[in-house]
Amino acid sequence: YLCFEESRWAKSIHAVAYCDKAIADNDLLSKRDLAATYSNRGIIYSANGQYDLAIRDHNRAIAIKSLLGQAIVNRGNVYFRMGEYKKALTDYDQALASNGEASATIYLNRGLALLEMKNFEEAKLSLMQAQELNPDSLQIRKLLEEVAPL
What is the three-state SS of 15-69? Predict the structure, then answer.
């Protein structure tokens, strides 16, 4: 639980210790919880600029529970931070396919990656899908206004 809570704020690399302890006690965790713990630790690593370690942990999470869509999104977010937008986009698309349900956040992230790749038309479509799923989002609305004339 502490690993999960720390991943929500990822203030300090010291929070990794909570995740390490949970992983060490992995016989007490379900496969899904173990995968989620690796992914949470990956979020903490990413927030602290340790991208290689973050990718490693998200890969472990995906290997344990291959349909854990959030771990795939989290890995995509690390790639995005690294400026590897094609890899991020691949992960966002894979997460959409594996989740079986659309997510405004995934479409938003996908749109942001496409904007960075200067693929404005596809970015606009992705952002429109995000807005359809979350019509009250000011962030999505603002991005769409910026992309609309392009």
Answer: HHHHHHHHHHCHHHCCHHHHHHHHHHHHHHHHHCCCHHHHHHHHHHHHHHCCCCH
Name the band, by pLDDT with cuts 50, 70 and 90, for residue 4.
Answer: confident
Please tell me which of 25-34, 82-91, 96-105 the model is most confident about, judged by mean pLDDT.
Answer: 82-91
**Percentage helix, strand, coil for the chain under 3-state DSSP, each rounded to 5:** 80, 0, 20
pTM, to two decimals: 0.88
Are 83 and 76 within 8 A, CB to CB? no
Q: d(Cα 127, Cα 140) in Å, to the nearest integer?
A: 7
- The 10s digit of each residue's pLDDT in 73-98 is 999 999 999 999 999 999 999 999 88
